[in-house]
């Protein structure tokens, strides 16, 4: 079970020698409840980057003794910014079948829910397999220079972005001709870290808001909800043994303060690892 591997246990997440991502998503049982701490390393404009919040909530499910299988699909709803300091995580199993287990997690501060997650874990068995989707073309990871550190928000420094198409170019006003919402990039943790379900979930939220690319400027935004489907389990990811993924992101419509956002994460070997969709609030 992926949830019981050394890399995803609470013990592995603790301590200053752990990877920043594991420190940021650390959970602990304190006085009969589960607790985490908002990491300054992964802060965005008004709170922690949503991807690391989602990964923390997924980690607390993996820490449960009755957790079985690997993440199949996760939906996280971000109701309010998570403030600095600690937060409580209330986790409970909802339903178990022969192949799946359904979970609910609520993240709260001062008695108010800031985010909640529903997750389905599955015990995958050998079966017929087919991948109609084709990996987007891209030069090798090392052949592309990483995006310079913009210093806009701390969480961006925790990743290396190597853009193949749709490199960010933002100004102080919207461009006269709207740009494409599509972008393609290699992505890895900084420093590098072996890809697992936790990092995949977090990376699904690393695509910069599509409205930034279209308008060519940074405007107030926020992820309202994000659903991720995992197309690889722990055995698949162990087989890939990769610290990088190729990401592709797009959007279809911006309307009355909200837009969609879709994304794919691919292994260097051409395996589709995860797909994601978001609803994003914007003010423009």
Automatic annotation (TrEMBL):
Domain of life from the UniProt record: Bacteria
Gene3D superfamilies, A to Z: Acyl-CoA thioesterase, double hotdog domain (2.40.160.210)
All copies of domain Acyl-CoA thioesterase-like C-terminal, residue ranges: 147-281
A Pfam family recorded for this sequence: 4HBT_3C
Domain Acyl-CoA thioesterase-like N-terminal HotDog: 47-121
Classification via SUPFAM superfamilies: Thioesterase/thiol ester dehydrase-isomerase
Protein name: Thioesterase family protein
Species for this entry: Candidatus Afipia apatlaquensis
């Amino acid at each position: 079970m992926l949830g019981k591997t050394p890399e995803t246990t609470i013990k592995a997440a603790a301590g200053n020698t752990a990877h920043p991502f594991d420190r940021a998503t650390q959970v602990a049982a304190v006085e009969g409840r589960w607790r985490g701490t908002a990491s300054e390393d992964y802060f965005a404009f008004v709170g922690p980057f949503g991807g690391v919040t989602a990964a923390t909530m997924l980690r607390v499910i993996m820490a449960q003794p009755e957790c079985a299988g690997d993440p199949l699909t996760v939906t996280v709803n971000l109701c309010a910014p998570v403030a600095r300091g600690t937060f409580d995580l209330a986790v409970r199993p909802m339903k178990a079948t022969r192949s799946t287990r359904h979970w609910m997690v609520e993240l709260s501060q001062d008695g108010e829910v800031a985010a909640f997650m529903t997750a389905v874990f599955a015990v995958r068995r050998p079966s017929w397999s087919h991948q109609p989707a084709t990996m987007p073309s891209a030069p090798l990871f090392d052949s592309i220079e990483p995006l310079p550190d913009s210093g806009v928000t701390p969480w961006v420094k925790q990743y290396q972005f190597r853009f193949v198409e749709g490199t960010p170019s933002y100004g102080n006003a919207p461009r006269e001709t709207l740009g494409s919402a599509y972008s393609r990039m290699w992505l890895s943790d900084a420093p590098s870290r072996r890809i697992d379900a936790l990092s995949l979930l977090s990376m699904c939220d690393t695509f910069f808001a599509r409205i930034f690319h279209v308008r060519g400027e940074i405007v107030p935004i926020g992820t309202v909800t994000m659903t991720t489907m995992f197309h690889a389990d722990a055995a698949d990811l162990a087989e890939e043994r990769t610290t990088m993924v190729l990401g592709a992101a797009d959007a279809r419509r911006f309307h009355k303060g909200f837009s969609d956002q879709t994304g794919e994460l691919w292994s260097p070997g051409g395996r589709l690892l995860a797909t994601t969709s978001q609803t994003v609030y914007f003010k423009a």
